[in-house]
Amino acid sequence: NRLEDELERAKTECKRLHRQVKDKNSELNELVKLNDDYQSQLQEFRNKDFDSSELSREYKEKLEKLKFEQEKMKIKEDNYIRQIQKLEEDHKSENARKEDKYESMIKAKEARLNKKYDDLDDRYTQALSEIDHLKSMIEQKEALVRQIESEVNGFNRKESKIREQYEV
Fold first, then answer.
1. pLDDT in tens, 100-112
2. Residue 44 and which of 20, 51, 63, 80 are 20 to 30 A apart at CA?
3. Which H or E run contains 111?
4. Element (H or E) spanning 51, and its range?
5. What is the DSSP string of 5-67?
């Protein structure tokens, strides 16, 4: 957010500087035209033996100053463009770093969930195995109970026959 705000401010400043450069260029063009006009006048003054060297020197100085200002503005604009590019690169790097961080966090979370799933699956498999073992034991016990019941019934029948023999 801070980088985006700085980026926006830098872009705004760059636009402002760009407009100033255009304004200075317009001024320069006007001064060049004005200089041309003065050069014409200077020629007329020369024809009239008027010393116009001072006037020409002043306008040349103004022209040089404007050129210097234009170059300064261009340097400032270039600097702001570089700052904007650096902010954009920093912003991209920061986003990439955050994306990598979140991806590694997601992968770690997935690994933990997969481990929990595997542990639960192992416990489920073990529980199924124990259930099968317990079913087998129950079947064995039921078979034993049936065998004992059969033997008890056999003893009861024998006992009934023996009783019948003694009662008669």
1. 999 999 999 999 9
2. 63
3. helix 53-167
4. none
5. HHHHHHHHHHHHHHHHHHHHHHHHHHHHHHHHHHHHHHHHHHHTT---HHHHHHHHHHHHHHH
